[in-house]
């Protein structure tokens, strides 16, 4: 099928993305499914799932487009029997086909899915309690592997307060025959109806439900398709948690398009990164002109390079990798270099790596680079709020240009004026991909989503309805460089220091430091903020090397940044707090330090 022709149906005569009257995502999915049937493609693989829970070799389960459509409709039919349109449905299951069946089934039932965690993973109890209380989910979808943990979690609640729990893989396929789409009355504003809720991490506040509408989801999917330059035939390999925006939106896109998405659990990648590299590699059953896509955070590059390097370059064929989008955290020169050194000899092209930037409040992607491009900026100028090229400074990754159908501006958060190219300010965006706000949080929604620019520089920029992202950035040669988080700046003696810059210095100071395992943050002092650094030891390092490493770290940070760390603490691997996607959670670690 010609997807470019389908996309054109959403572009009006002014070139804007506009949803047709009474549009729904299930209606689009069903249209594409019908087209697939006409082309005889319904028996082609749609979901491939590797289950390593039983053995290290793994068990492969394959679901055709026909089977996936049947399972989605079976879930939808059951949800329609027990619930009403608009009910909220929490997905609490491991990465699995059932997760996707449940998510899409809720959409097909005109209910609102809420992608949440694998219930077997520890550490989510308080966050889950807050999310379920905030969302007031009527139903929880899980699978047989997650059901015991889900039932145990809710067993402590009074029966009247427990949501309904359904195990997706216990529902018979025959239910699909009873599914009928819910009629949408003429004139209904379906574009701004809630599609699903994406909850924020809540590391410094109660988690907030980002309201993603049909308009924002479809707009960003078209933006992703255009910016990533997706080529057919294609398949995708994913290990990211499906409750993360990158995981669920990319998976949903592939399921709707009828392309193959291959998934496994994050822990199965962490335990053996080679499993993921093998998924990226050419398979015997691949068409000759296959294009493979994936999305990963930066830390995965180093992990894969260290533990998945092939014995011989020709053991794998990565020439089929067309796009590896790197997001979720800062992209580092070291990460890209080590990844290319490991896998370039196996055919991986540097241009296949695509650093990007996005956030849930913009649905997913905001910027996407054509290839890794690092520019070295002067450290002192950066501390003063400007990016100026320097031979000896901080290498930073370009996140490319903004995606189409969206405005982006760098704004002084105090004056609310747009700043010129080269100046650091808060990144603001405006477009139909921006979410509808936070669920039941009017004040926070106004603060984040309803901002006005006082003075603009770019011609034709709208004045109102800007999303203030909270991220600091600057534009250089037309491309966007993310410099840090507004609330994470380390300010000592009136100078701004970016935590990721200090963390890079620490990692380069001693072999005692584990890569991508440093947290730098500031805590209040009597007169000035104090710099605290948490460090994980390298895999083979012991506590006896802490003292020498501390001296080396203190010397490097002092000489490079002009500040001396007040406290340096060492931890064993994986002891520093991280987000569920593996990123260092600076503010969580700061909270841990302050609460002692």
TrEMBL record:
One of its GO terms (molecular function) is ligase activity. It comes from the Bacteria. The keyword Cell wall biogenesis/degradation does not apply. GO terms for biological process: Actinobacterium-type cell wall biogenesis; fatty acid biosynthetic process. Keywords: Fatty acid metabolism, Ligase, Lipid metabolism. Gene3D superfamilies: 3.30.300.30, N-terminal domain of ligase-like. NCBIfam families: FadD32_Coryne. Belongs to the ATP-dependent AMP-binding enzyme family. This is Acyl-CoA synthase. It comes from Corynebacterium liangguodongii.
């Amino acid at each position: 099928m010609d997807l470019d022709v389908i996309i054109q149906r959403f572009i009006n005569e002014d070139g804007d993305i506009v949803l047709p009257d009474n549009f729904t995502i299930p209606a689009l999915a069903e249209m594409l499914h019908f087209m697939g049937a006409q082309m005889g493609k319904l028996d082609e693989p749609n979901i491939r799932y590797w289950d390593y829970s039983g053995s290290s070799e793994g068990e492969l389960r394959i679901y055709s487009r026909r089977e996936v459509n049947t399972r989605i409709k079976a879930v939808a039919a059951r949800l329609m029997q027990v619930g009403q349109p608009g009910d909220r449905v929490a997905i609490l299951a491991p990465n699995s086909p059932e997760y996707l069946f449940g998510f899409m089934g809720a959409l097909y039932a005109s209910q609102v899915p809420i992608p949440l965690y694998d219930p077997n993973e520890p550490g989510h109890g308080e966050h889950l309690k807050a999310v379920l209380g905030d969302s007031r989910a009527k139903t929880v979808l899980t699978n047989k592997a997650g059901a015991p943990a889900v039932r145990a979690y809710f067993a402590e609640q009074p029966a009247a307060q427990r949501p309904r729990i359904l195990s997706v893989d216990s529902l018979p396929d025959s239910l699909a025959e009873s599914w009928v789409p819910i009629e949408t009355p003429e004139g209904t504003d379906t574009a701004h109806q809630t599609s699903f809720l994406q909850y924020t991490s809540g590391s410094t506040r109660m988690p907030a439900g980002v309201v993603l509408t049909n308009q924002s989801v479809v707009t960003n999917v078209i933006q992703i398709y255009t910016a990533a330059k997706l080529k057919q035939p294609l398949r995708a390999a994913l290990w990211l948690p499906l409750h993360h925006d990158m995981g669920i939106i990319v998976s949903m896109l592939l399921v709707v398009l009828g392309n193959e998405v291959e998934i496994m659990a994050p822990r199965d990648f962490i335990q053996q990164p080679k499993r993921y590299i093998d998924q990226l590699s050419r398979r015997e059953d691949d068409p000759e002109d296959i294009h493979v896509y994936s999305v990963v955070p930066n830390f995965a590059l180093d992990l894969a390079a260290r533990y998945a390097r092939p014995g011989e370059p020709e053991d794998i064929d990565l020439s089929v990798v067309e796009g590896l989008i790197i997001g979720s955290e800062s992209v580092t020169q070291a990460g890209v270099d080590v990844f290319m050194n490991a896998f370039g000899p196996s055919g991986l092209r540097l241009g296949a790596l695509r650093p990007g930037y996005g956030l849930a409040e913009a649905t997913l992607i905001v910027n996407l680079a054509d290839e890794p491009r690092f520019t070295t900026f002067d450290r002192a100028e950066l501390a003063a709020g400007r990016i100026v090229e320097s031979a000896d400074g901080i290498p930073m990754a370009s996140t490319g240009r903004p995606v189409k159908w969206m405005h982006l501006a760098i704004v002084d958060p105090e004056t609310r004026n747009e700043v010129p190219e080269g100046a650091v300010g808060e990144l603001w965006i405006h477009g139909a991909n921006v979410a509808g706000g936070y669920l039941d949080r009017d004040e926070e929604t106004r603060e984040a989503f309803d901002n006005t620019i006082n003075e603009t520089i770019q011609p034709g920029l709208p004045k109102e309805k800007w999303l203030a992202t909270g991220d600091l950035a600057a534009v250089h040669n037309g491309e966007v460089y993310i410099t840090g988080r507004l609330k994470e700046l380390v300010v000592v003696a009136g100078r701004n220091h970016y935590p990721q810059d200090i963390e890079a210095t620490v990692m380069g100071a001693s072999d005692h430091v584990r890569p991508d395992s440093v947290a730098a943050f500031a805590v209040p002092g009597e007169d000035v903020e104090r710099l605290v650094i948490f460090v994980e030891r390298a895999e083979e390092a012991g506590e006896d090397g802490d003292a020498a490493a501390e001296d080396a770290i203190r010397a490097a940070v002092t000489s490079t940044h002009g500040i001396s760390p007040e406290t340096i603490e060492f931890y064993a691997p994986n002891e520093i707090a991280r987000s569920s996607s593996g990123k260092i959670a600076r503010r969580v670690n700061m909270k841990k330090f302050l609460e002692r």
